[in-house]
Amino acid sequence: QQQVKQSPQSLIVQKGGISIINCAYENTAFDYFPWYQQFPGKGPALLIAIRPDVSEKKEGRFTISFNKSAKQFSLHIMDSQPGDSATYFCALINTNAGKSTFGDGTTLTVKP
Amino acid sequence: NAGVTQTPKFQVLKTGQSMTLQCAQDMNHEYMSWYRQDPGMGLRLIHYSVGAGITDQGEVPNGYNVSRSTTEDFPLRLLSAAPSQTSVYFCASRSDRRGELFFGEGSRLTVL
User: Fold this and answer.
1) Which chain A residue has the Cα nearest residue B100?
2) Which residues of B touch A30 (CB under 8 A)?
3) Cβ–Cβ of B106/A43 closer than 8 Å?
4) Exposure b/e, A92-102, CB count within 10 A at least 16 = b
5) Is A34 left (phi over 0), alpha (psi -120 to 50) or beta?
6) Among A31, A38, B10, B91, which is 20 to 30 Å from B37 by CA?
7) Alpha-carbon separation of residue A50 from A5, A84, B11, B50, B102 (angstroms)
8) pLDDT at position B34, please?
9) Dihedrals phi, psi of A45, to nearest 5 degrees
């Protein structure tokens, strides 16, 4: 049973537009909710992350919105740039144990 | 700091052969883990370790063995390779108290 559902699978956005990727989860045992960015041939790299006691976190053009009651969190990329074209993964991490689970990924293409 | 180093980057095996994927980190992280990444399926946790001498199974452990004799190293062993194990493998580590996972560059394995 998949613990986290990520959508959409792919996304095409014009340069300067807003990219929005969503994740919904079921298990509440996790306490760290990151988004990872992955370029072809590279390992995933942390983009931004949030703890469940915060509803929103912003770092530059990237924002996480977290809705604990709805068990959902989303990544917003403002002023999307062609260099943002990559695959994005949400994840659920239990920092007190070893478990982690990742979404299936969203391929973002930003057209110039 | 090299971060997380994986070797080899590419490997081709025949069905039934065994091999070991190496992973080393120089950040003194307690937690290390192995994931496999298949198209459209995100990253799936194979095995993880919360410290030297301690390992546990993840989501897809069958066909893989791990051990953790030192803090720095966490090798992944394929006992008898099968075509279903064709994938890209990522090793990751994190500090015990922080959620951020640091990934290696990946090892692409093809089993014929």
Assistant:
1) A46
2) none
3) yes
4) bbebeebbbbb
5) beta
6) A31
7) 18, 20, 36, 22, 16
8) 97
9) -130, 140
CB of A75 closer than 8 Å to CB of A62: yes
Distance CA B32, CA B111 (A): 25
Does B31 sit within 8 Å of A102, measured CB to CB?
Answer: no
Confidence of residue B99 (pLDDT cuts 50, 70, 90): confident
Determine the pLDDT at residue A2. 65
Tell me the β-bridge partners of A33: A50
In terms of phi and psi (left: phi > 0; alpha: psi -120 to 50; beta: otherwise), the region of A94 is: beta
- Tens digit of pLDDT for each residue in B48-98? 999 999 999 999 999 999 999 999 999 999 999 999 999 999 999 998 667
Sequence-distant (6+) residues with CB within 8 A of A51 are A31, A32, A33
Tokens for A4?
Answer: 């986290």
Q: How far apart are the first and last CA of chain B?
A: 36
Contact in structure between A44 and A38 (CB atoms under 8 Å): yes
pLDDT band at B1 (very low <50, low <70, confident <90, very high): low
Among B35, B58, B99, select the one facing A95 at the smallest CB separation: B99
Residue B41, number of CB atoms within 10 A of its CB: 14
Cα(B31)–Cα(A36) distance, rounded to whole angstroms? Answer: 18
